[in-house]
Amino acid sequence: MASAPFCPLRPGRTAAHKNGMDVQYFIELFFSGLTRGSIYALIALGYTLVYGIIELINFAHGEIYMLGAFTALLVAGVLGIMGFPAGGILVVAALAAIIWSAAYGFTLEKVAYKPLRGAPRLSPLISAIGMSIFLQNYVLLAQTSEYLPFPRLLPDMEFLDYIDNIMGPSDFLILVCSMLAMVALTLFIRYTKMGKAMRATAQNRKMALLLGINADRIISLTFIVGSALAALGGVLIASHMGQVNFSIGFLAGLKAFTAAVLGGIGSIPGAVVGGLVLGIAESFTTGYISGNYEDALAFALLIFILIFRPDGILGKAKVQKV
Amino acid sequence: MKKGISWLAAALLTTALAAPALAEDTIKIGVQGAHSGDLASYGVPSLNAAKLVIEEANAKGGILGKKVELVAQDDQCKPELATNAATKLISDGVAAVMGPICSGPTNAALPMFESAKLISISPTATTPALTLEGKHPYFLRTVAHDNAQAELTSSYIKDVMKAKKVAYLHDNGEYGKGFATQNRNILEKAGIETVLFEAVTPDAVDFSSVVRKLRRAKADVLVFGGYQPTASKLVQQMRRDRVDTPLMGPDGVKDETFLKMTGKDSEGVLASYPKDTSSLEMYKKAREAHVKQFGTEPGFGFYNAYAAMQAILKAIETSGGTDTAKLLEALKSNEVETPLGKLSFNKSGDAAGLGLSVYVVKGGKFVETDHTITLH
Amino acid sequence: MMRPVSKAILASIWFMILTFPVMGIKLNTVEQTVEWQFDRIILLGVAIFFLSLLWNWCFSRKGRGLPLIALPSGMGATLGRLCSLPLRDSRSRAVSLTVLLLVMLVMPLVSSFYQTNIMILALLYVMLALGLNIAVGIAGQLVLGYVAFYAVGAYAYALLNQFFGLGFWACLPVGGLLAVLFGLALGFPVLRLRGDYLAIVTLGFGEIVRLTLLNWTSLTGGSGGIKNIPGPSFFGKQLSIEDNTIFIYYLVLLAVILTIVVITRLKNSRVGLALQALREDEIACEAMGIDLARVKLSAFALSSCWAGFAGVIFAAKSTFINPASFTFMESAMILSMVVLGGMGSIVGVVIAALILILAPEYLRAFSDYRMLIFGAIMVIMMIFRPQGLVTGERRKYRINALKGEQA
Question: Which of A315, B11, B269, C133 has its CA 20 to 30 A from that of A192?
């Protein structure tokens, strides 16, 4: 057994040793939080994009993330049995997950939200909750209630040995991929024609309509982009945690929503900041207090923010319109 | 609509009145558990076991010249549905119940069974208090309670691993937390230091913070209370972060899927589990019957349920009827040959004769060690 | 005629592709084999084809403003018409109500223990749904954590009984009161919030209550829950389980009747009208001089009160409680009763609660599909019949031209 030999106390050295340890520990926790936070951020972007355009909390967004993870698992499983090389499988599975999740997001909007445009505000929210329950049970019935193993596809990354104990290959992959995705999203929103149309629609839907922007198409596009990001998050987490289940979307979705609200819902940098802040806060709670309070903290933070600063860290206060 | 309700009520009344009219020429055995919903994978194997045992008995001409009939009730492992399922079994006039399979529903259903003086044998409810408190005279089980597991694992940690510092993580469920707590109680009494005791959220997107905390705690052993999916995520993340603390889990961890999910990371993981009885004739027979009829390997709790059904039928046979007092007497005084070995029930209702061993993963397989206890 | 058909074919192809991975691939990870389930995909395609035709037909009717009688929710519409029949004039209304009451009264005496037990659960949910209806249906405040108040009631009784030996009758008002306090504690800070923000805060609140119950092991027993909770005493005597069940049945029945009476009175009272005004338009409501804070708080307090009562009865009925009974899904279920029944309508909510609880009990074969169907119903109702099975009717005040009196 790897039981450490009993160390007698060495009073002279413990304090300094402990101190050095604490900085290292702090950094470790910080990076844990960053990994977790960037996943929250990826999902939170979907909430924020949709909210920015049609002011709807897409409650079923967590389920899209779950569907992404599931699709990747199934595709990777099939390819693995057919004998494809591991690196190729991961890329193909991720692409399939993104495409199918985007399609789910698109369909979700067409079926459950589009017919409700102009309805009282509670209607689409209830419809979204219904969709969330529906999608969870759809996967439960079509697949299984058990946890399915996600194949291990990541190569060992030896250059990470330099930053020993802080980051593993999958943490690295999560950070890099989510960062790339966020940069790509920012560029897309800023510089492409469609991105500009999205911004215009978010600013003022009527005006955008008058300028010849097809609002329906922009809304569909928003759902597609948001779902693709969530699917990416799903694939990353599935390969990081090594398993997938029909129920993983609920908690992740809720946390990501918290992140979106924390950063200021409707604001794209806000979602990223909110995700990272929430991830790091959770990591520190676990590291310095206790893992028992991790979830309670997230929900308490959500309530606290909504009550005292409903516009979040980066959101702008809105004037109540009649 | 009010009319709708009255029609409904009228329909209910007729069914209710019509139900007891059936002739009583069969012996009914109730089976309660999660047969649908998200926990179905824990409940369906025991239902299959009941089907197989009853089929076999009926093929031999039944018990006491009567056919045995299975009455299945689904509680989805939810306490609020468990009372409905239990009352349904009672009003169907079953002779005894095999189930419920989860501890929560068992707690909810037992008062019903007791007031109806109905024996229930659970194949998988492991909450210690159910039998150890001595409050449920008609409740028996064919599975070792969690304290027995903790007794085994803590003695292994203390005597074999000779650990000085132990960390405990659990999933905040009754089963997992109970296992971790009981281990801590025993080990702390033996003077072994607790360096970490806390919960993890099974559905969390990442475990690295708690793994890093664990690394800093420098424990010799990690006792994990919970089920296989959480354990496999935890082990993977630990090994990835180069934390090689050995993990000791309860029987919920020892599972083929665990090995599949964790691959080479599982090397050295320890778990308590019932003693390997797969060399017994009865075990082979039960397994073959399952493979033949359902086309798959038996699932969770199958052999325990098989044993429970055998005990019930045997007791009915020896006591010559379905009188509860005589059944109980028969169950507690006779030994039954089961896939888990020769079992009888002790005073508190636990199955004497059940053995538990510590298993360790070696070469990608769970290997039984010689560290074993037997229930009395 | 061609357009809907080609649309339906397109939809069916689209869904077949969309659901292909999840429906069509079944992995066996142990034996490393793939099972392709094309039959399921084809079946789904066919189903989608017809559903799409139906969907389009419904939309065309909706677009022309026609009633959607033969919809998936058509059964509900027919039921709605049926129900308004005996309610139309006061005599047939009185007769049908009396018959119903008689049936309900006799039921536990002639039916089995099991039927009574289920009926209790159904009536408890009726109570919960009616309580939630005050906040959601009448006042328009979407509460997603309603089950928290239910939990407060249940744990109040279980804990007071365990630690202080208090009986059911002492705990019933205490449970209600505690739930009200929790309702107010939640209501005060969220006064400024509305719509979706409010919904999410209440959801978070519900989860926090559940997590607290789960983690505060020394008080609540954690996930092990609390057991051996006694039933209500009958004039100081503890009853056997069967008698107890029948007793609780009458108790819940009485509670439901009381709830209905109170809510009917409430709806047409000053506070009730203010609540409805709040639902329609907050700003206009405030402009009319209604004290928003007071009205909102009273909606929360009234609503949570019933959940507290129901919780106490639930604990007494099931004798064992643990946090697993108080998850978000439970809140969603109660909410779907309110939505399905018709927000603000008492009759509708009662019917919906009975259907949603009783149907799965009697249709055990469909229990796997229960939540799937719930989810779909919530969406379909919102699209085609947002007002629910029964439209909540408001009392109309007619101004007499001559005297200016209220009729």
Answer: A315
Over the stretch B170-205, which tens digit does the pLDDT of each residue have?
A: 988 888 888 999 999 999 999 999 999 999 988 888
d(CA B263, CA B257): 10
* Residue C87 to residue B2, Cβ atoms within 8 A: yes
List all residues 6 or more positions away from B368 whose beta carbon is below 8 Å from its beta carbon.
B275, B276, B357, B358, B359
pLDDT tens digits along B193-243: 999 999 998 888 889 889 989 988 889 999 999 988 899 889 988 988 888
Residues B152 and B259 placed together within one structural domain of the fold: yes
Q: Of the candidates A32, A39, A152, which has its C-beta nearest B212's C-beta? A: A32
Q: Which residues pair with C381 in a beta bridge?
A: none
How far apart CA A308 and CA C193 sit, in angstroms, is: 10
Number of domains in chain B: 2
Task: Say which of C104, C113, C321 has its CB closest to residue B90.
Answer: C113
pLDDT for the residue numbered C30:
66
A29 CB neighbours in chain B (<8 A) are 209, 212
Give phi and psi for C174, each to the nearest 5.
-60, -45
Q: How far apart are alpha carbons C203 and C197 in whole angstroms? A: 10
Task: State pTM to two decimals.
Answer: 0.84
Is some CB atom of chain A closer than 8 A to the CB atom of B233? yes
Cα first-last separation, chain B: 60
For residue C74, the model assigns a pLDDT of 53
Residue B365 shares a structural domain with residue B222: yes
Tell me, what's the pLDDT at C78? 60
Q: Is the Cβ of A250 closer than 8 Å to some Cβ of chain B?
A: yes
Structure tokens, C85: 């029949």
Region B272-287: what's the mean pLDDT?
90
Which residues of A fall within a CB distance of 8 Å from C339?
126
Residues B154, B225, single domain; the answer is: yes
Residues B270 and B184 in one domain: yes
A283, closest residue in chain B (CA to CA): B209
- Chain A residues whose CB is inside 8 A of the B199 CB are 290-292
pLDDT one-digit tens code per residue, C25-39: 888 766 778 888 888
Parent domain of B346: 25-144+279-355
- Chosen from C196, C338, C343 to mutate, greatest number of chain A CBs within 10 A: C196
Chain A to chain B Cβ contacts (< 8 Å): 130
* Residues from chain B contacting residue A292 (CB–CB below 8 Å): 172, 198-199
Q: How far is CA A95 from CA A79, A285, B7, in A?
A: 13, 35, 55
A173, A241, A285: best to mutate for the B interface, most B CBs within 10 A: A241
Which ipTM value was assigned to this complex? 0.83
Shared domain for B208 and B319, answered yes or no, is no
Report the C-alpha gap between B190 and B188 in whole angstroms. 5
The answer to whether residues B293 and B369 belong to one domain is no
Residue A131: CA count within 13 A, CB half-sphere: 26
B138 and B31 share a domain?
yes
Residues 156-195 of B with CB under 8 A from A: 161-165, 169, 172
- Which residue from A minimizes the CA distance to B171? A292
Comparing CB atoms, the residue among A247, A250, A287 nearest residue B209 is A287
Name residue B307's beta-bridge partners.
none
B344 lies in the same domain as B363: no
Hey, which chains touch B, using 3+ CB pairs under 8 Å?
Answer: A, C
> Domains along chain A?
28-308 (1.10.3470)
Choice between B91 and A61, residue whose per-residue pLDDT is larger: A61
Domain assignment present for residue B204? The answer is yes
- Is residue C396's pLDDT more than 90? no
Question: For residue B190, is it within any domain?
Answer: yes
Looking up residue B253, the CATH number of its domain turns out to be 3.40.50.2300
B331 inside domain? yes
